[in-house]
Write a structure and sequence with these properties.
- This protein is mostly helical.
- The radius of gyration is 15 Å and the shape is flat.
Length: 84
């Protein structure tokens, strides 16, 4: 993580590897980085190179967590996203 932090600070951009720490599927991260010879299958918040269903499931979970956090901070009821 120190190397990722250093590159973020020196380049002024978030390194693509941060997707691993955020829980993105490895095929999606490595495919995007060109480390695996995978074709892009679509987009669901990020470019999908692996299993579309798994990426959509994770994207839905991330969106649901974001919605719940915002609802909590606003003092409102919790919302939920449903999978595609």
């Amino acid at each position: 993580m120190d190397e990722v932090k250093e590159r973020w600070l020196t380049r002024g951009a978030i390194p693509h590897e941060i997707g691993v720490a955020l829980g993105y599927p490895l095929d999606d991260v490595f495919g995007y980085m060109g480390l695996l010879p995978l074709a892009c299958k679509g987009v669901c918040g990020w470019q999908v190179y692996g299993c579309m269903q798994e990426s959509q499931r994770r994207s839905c979970a991330f969106n649901n967590a974001r919605c719940q956090a915002l609802a909590f901070l606003a003092g409102t009821t919790v919302c939920s996203y449903t999978a595609l």
